[in-house]
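I hope you will forgive my troubling you with a question about protein structure. Could you please explain, in whatever detail you think fit, how the structure tokens follow from the sequence? Thank you for your consideration; the sequence and its tokens are set out here.
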Amino acid sequence: MPLGRACSIAVRGIDGQVVEIEADIGQGLPSVHLVGLPDASLQESRDRVRAAVANTGEKWPDGRVILALSPATLPKVGSVYDLALAAAVLDAADIVPAARLTGTVLLGELALDGRLRRVRGILPAVLAARRAGRKTVVVPEEALPEAGLVAGIRVLGAPTLRAAIDWLRGEGGLEESTGVLTTQQATPAGDLRDVAGQHEARWALEVAAAGGHHLLLTGAPGIGKTMLAQRLPGVLPPLSENEALEVTAIHSVAGTLSDEQPLITTPPFVAPHHSTSVSAMVGGGSGSARPGAVSRAHRGVLFLDECAEIGAKVLEAMRTPLEEGEIRIARRDGVARYPARFQLVLAANPCPCAPARDMDCICAPLARRRYLGKLSGPLMDRIDIWLQMHPLSGAGLTVAESEDSATVRGRVTAARAAAVDRWRDDGWRTNAEVPGHALRRRFPLPAETTAPVEAALRLGRISARGADRALRVAWTVCDLRGGDRPTAHDVMQALDFRQRSPR
């Protein structure tokens, strides 16, 4: 009984697992049966694969074809298996030899005329193939720059099924990735020198960038909240190689990668509209869950403008990723895990009417309280820096030019390097990631230094979580000035950021 085999990859979240595809050609009426928990799009691949093989000039087997995808208990989603399904059938029919199929992973969707189309999740699939010890992976030719980001595995690009068949027969070659990619740093949306005045806000932004802290900006419309937030990625250091691959893998699954620049080397900036839904924010979708805004902002900035207009459920859904740096989405087909270690920047007006001056406000006191009331206590407790911005005077617009982003980025990079060196053994990269108990045990501070935090905690002005976050900010302030340990002045600065509630 003819039997053919080929391999592909099932991607869940940004993790992948090798899927073995077996093709059996038996007696019976001509038909194609697909087993192994395929979803609707994969069930439709029976007709796509059959038409593609016929239009390539090869003969589809006469008889009953059974295609089994193993492990059978793993849900299979999408059209990434098309090329492997075709190869398994052609192997079973002795149209292509099995020699090159051994140790090779095949990825790609087939058009009816045999063209290979790009699919989502190519990068995490190639990473999974390398972890599984596979030597070669064949991808659609247009996805070759993305797949070629992975070193340690041979990556080939096939434009059509015909080209892949010729390569399997040893009659032709495929374009091979050189593994060398020229990356260009993305130009920031704006420079920090464009911000006139607002020295306190600029300092708060620098502290947030240096320590990876979350930030809340409140103030009248047009005061510069959005302008500051958009310039935060420009003062963050470039992503490391591992971070860049991790961020690129998320955007590959989301389908937002650029063909011209497949590797993301700068911190992403994601700014969803205030009408966004819970699924769009944290991820979701039927079958296999797609990454949401919190994951696409991984290692970058998530900016929520007009946060008081965002639904309360959407805001509360961010509490877990803010604390854990990961989002877990449970669906019918299992649990998808996406990293979500981002910096949250919230911006809000002080009240619904949002006048230029507080004295011109026409809102009732209850309306003002209710407006920012959507920012619940547990959510606010996870924000490290609260800042109320004030309008500029006429002289504030004519002052000398401020520091540019490159200058500030130099100080931020030095402060982050100090934090990385401090927590090297534990793997934490910023002060914001360090658990409170580790901060207190590994680097205890004198009682006179922590006295302001103890007093605020005793008076009920901050919670225990707030106290830990204040200490983290104090360590960041210390790193920015190049100190060894925070002083009482550093702690007071950090505490001052938390005791000016926007409500």
